[in-house]
Write a structure and sequence with these properties.
single chain, mainly beta, 1 helix, 14 strands, disordered N terminus
C-alpha cells in the first residue's frame, strides 16, 4: 500500500511539473488574443490533388461511395497573424519537434492558445467532402478556422494518369481464416 501511495505522489508531482512547464513555456504563439484582427493563410503551392490518390474510399449518408482526400496542408504553408496595430507574425507548417506537425514561428513557438475552458486550440482544418464529393472539374474547397475567423482554400483535383492496375501472382493462394495458405 505504501508503494502505491508513493507512486501516486510521484505521478502527481510529475503531472504538476508538466502543467507548470506548459504554462510557463513558450507554448502560446499568441500573446493577446484580443489584439488579433485577422489572419492570412498562404499556401506554399497551389492545393492540387490527384484524383483518387492520398485518401480513402468512403460511403456517405445516402449510401453513395466517394473518395475522401486526406489533409491538404503542406510543409511550408504559412499563417500570418495580423494584429490590430498592423503588425504581423508568421508561422509555418512543419514537423516541428518530434514530428508534431503544427504551425511554428522562427523561434519554434507553436501557434495555439488556451480557451476559457483551459483547452489548447490550434488552427483547425475542415472540408465538405462528405456532402459535396470532390471531383475533377468541380469547385472544391477546405476551410481553416482560427479564433472564430474562417478562410476558404481552393482545392483542385486533377485527373489521375493511372487508368487501371493489373496484378498477377506467380503462385495461387487461398485465404482461410485470414491466413494465406499456399494452394496445392
Amino acid at each position: 500500500m505504501k508503494l502505491l501511495k508513493k507512486i501516486y505522489i510521484l505521478n502527481a508531482i510529475f503531472f504538476a511539473s508538466l502543467l507548470m512547464f506548459s504554462i510557463n513555456s513558450k507554448v502560446l504563439g499568441v500573446e493577446k488574443i484580443e489584439d488579433i484582427k485577422d489572419f492570412n493563410y498562404i499556401l506554399k503551392e497551389e492545393a492540387v490533388l490527384v484524383e483518387n490518390d492520398d485518401g480513402d474510399f468512403k460511403t456517405d449518408d445516402n449510401g453513395n461511395k466517394y473518395f475522401h482526400y486526406h489533409d491538404i496542408q503542406s510543409e511550408g504553408d504559412t499563417i500570418e497573424i495580423i494584429y490590430n496595430d498592423g503588425t504581423t507574425h508568421t508561422y509555418k507548417y512543419y514537423g516541428g519537434y518530434d514530428d508534431n506537425y503544427s504551425y511554428y514561428d522562427s523561434n519554434g513557438t507553436r501557434l495555439c492558445y488556451i480557451d476559457s475552458n483551459g483547452k489548447y486550440k490550434e488552427p483547425k482544418f475542415s472540408d465538405n467532402q462528405e456532402k459535396v464529393h470532390w471531383k475533377v472539374g468541380t469547385n472544391n474547397y477546405a476551410t481553416i478556422e482560427f479564433l472564430g475567423i474562417e478562410k476558404k482554400i481552393s482545392v483542385k483535383i486533377t485527373e489521375s494518369p493511372v487508368k487501371a492496375i493489373k496484378y498477377t501472382t506467380k503462385e495461387s493462394y487461398i485465404a482461410t481464416d485470414a491466413i494465406l495458405d499456399r494452394a496445392y
